[in-house]
């Protein structure tokens, strides 16, 4: 593997890990707020269940 391909792959991995760390923890106040702002039609079944459990029926 060439050095430029290795550098590009490293950059992509760093971006993916960096972006995934920004998601709030399920059930946190930030997560509840984020879900409230997201259209409910776009929620998954798991997200809807988690929202009900952590944000509605505290």
Q: How would you characterize the overall build of this protein?
A:
This protein has helices at residues 3-20, 29-37, 45-56. It is mostly helical and 58 residues long. It has one domain. It is elongated, with a radius of gyration of 17 Å. The N and C termini lie far apart (52 Å). This is DUF3012 domain-containing protein. InterPro entries: DUF3012. Residues 1-23 form the signal peptide.
Describe the structure in brief.
With 58 residues, this protein is mainly α. Helices cover 67% and strands 0% of the residues.
Sheet having the most strands:
none
Beta-strand percentage range: under 5%
Shape field: elongated
Structural class: mainly alpha
* Domain module count: 1
Strands, count: 0
Mean pLDDT: 84
What is the helix/strand order? HHH
Instruction: Return residue spans where pLDDT drops below 50 for at least 5 consecutive residues.
Output: none
Helical stretch count?
3
Which range best describes the helical content: under 10%, 10-25%, 25-40%, 40-55%, 55-70% or over 70%?
55-70%
- What is the CA-based Rg, rounded? 17 Å
Distance between the termini: 52 Å
Protein name: DUF3012 domain-containing protein
Signal peptide: 1-23
Keywords: Signal
InterPro entries: DUF3012 (IPR021379)
What are the SSEs and their pairings?
Blueprint: H1 3-20, H2 29-37, H3 45-56
Organism: Shewanella halifaxensis (strain HAW-EB4)
Protein name: DUF3012 domain-containing protein
Signal peptide: 1-23
Notable traits:
58 residues, mainly alpha, DUF3012 domain-containing protein
């Amino acid at each position: 593997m060439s050095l430029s391909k290795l550098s590009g792959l490293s950059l992509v991995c760093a971006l993916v890990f960096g972006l995934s760390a920004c998601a709030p923890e399920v059930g946190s106040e930030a997560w509840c707020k984020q879900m409230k702002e997201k259209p409910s039609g776009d929620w998954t079944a798991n997200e809807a269940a988690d929202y009900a459990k952590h944000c509605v029926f505290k």
